[in-house]
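ok, trying the design again with the full structure, not the truncated one.
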């Protein structure tokens, strides 16, 4: 059973694209993959990650968050800058819940496992803690703090004054707007979105992985998450922030580093059945 570029309704009723594949020899476990900042479900080698998991019997769902800048007509480029501007963590968490509702309408009995890459790792930890349908959370190159990603002092004051700031996308060369609402949303929910406090009291199984050569989100982030959750940090040698993949990815197979990460994650999820 394969659903490709289907439409789900997420935060604020906004529509976005979603994929779901259930293999013939389905093991009852569905991976829900959350992309990162300026990411999207069809970035780079994510389609091969999906194939790797489904070949092992897992269902696999990946979706675009509703305010990532894509549209249902164009889910790759940032054609909806108004939506990108208004994105918040609260909206992305709501998107996860809506994606799960969408899966429930397609599959009657399943266990869910969140995998979040980069910023998506933070969203996965927050959303996954309370969702009953989520059995475990895996973070790939995740940030260890939301608050630390914001500007400080004069840059923050300028953002507050103007109500918007701009971040350049290296791939499209667009100046992408961010409303001060992103910061205000974090401050409003600062206690719930404090990843250290969240992880120190995390009950569900957590898998923390990071590339040793990650310069975008340094490995110290993974080290902190591992300490807080009292879990081992799974490091991938010679791996950058996207585990040696890139966009577009034209090779027919995964880069070895990303394949190793997938296998480690599968091993973790399978180990849960033995506990």
């Amino acid at each position: 059973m394969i659903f490709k570029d289907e439409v789900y309704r997420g935060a604020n009723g906004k529509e976005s694209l979603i994929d779901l594949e259930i293999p013939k020899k389905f093991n009852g476990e569905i991976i829900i993959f959350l992309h990162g900042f300026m990411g999207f479900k069809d970035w780079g080698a994510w389609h091969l990650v999906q194939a790797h998991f489904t070949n092992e019997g897992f269902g696999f769902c990946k979706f675009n968050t509703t305010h990532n800048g894509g549209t249902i007509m164009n889910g790759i480029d940032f054609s909806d800058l108004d939506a990108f501007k208004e994105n918040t963590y609260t909206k992305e968490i709501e998107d996860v819940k809506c994606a799960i509702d969408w899966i429930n309408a397609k599959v009657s009995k399943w266990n869910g496992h969140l995998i979040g890459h980069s910023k998506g790792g933070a969203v996965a930890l927050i959303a996954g803690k309370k969702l009953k349908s989520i059995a475990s959370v895996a973070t790939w190159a995740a940030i260890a703090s939301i608050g630390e990603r914001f500007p400080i002092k004069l840059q923050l004051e300028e953002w507050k004054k103007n109500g918007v700031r701009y971040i350049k996308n290296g791939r499209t060369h667009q100046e992408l707007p961010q409303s001060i609402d992103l910061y205000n949303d974090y401050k409003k929910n600062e206690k719930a979105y404090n990843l250290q406090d969240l992880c120190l009291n995390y009950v569900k199984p957590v898998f923390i992985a990071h590339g040793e050569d990650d310069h975008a989100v340094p490995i110290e982030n993974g080290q902190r998450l591992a300490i807080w959750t009292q879990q081992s940090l799974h490091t991938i040698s010679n791996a950058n922030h996207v585990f040696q993949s890139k966009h577009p990815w034209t090779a027919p197979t995964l880069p070895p580093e990303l394949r190793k990460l997938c296998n480690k994650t599968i091993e973790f999820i399978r180990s849960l059945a033995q506990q």
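Keeping the full-length input from now on. The CA atoms of residues 125 and 137 lie 7 Å apart.
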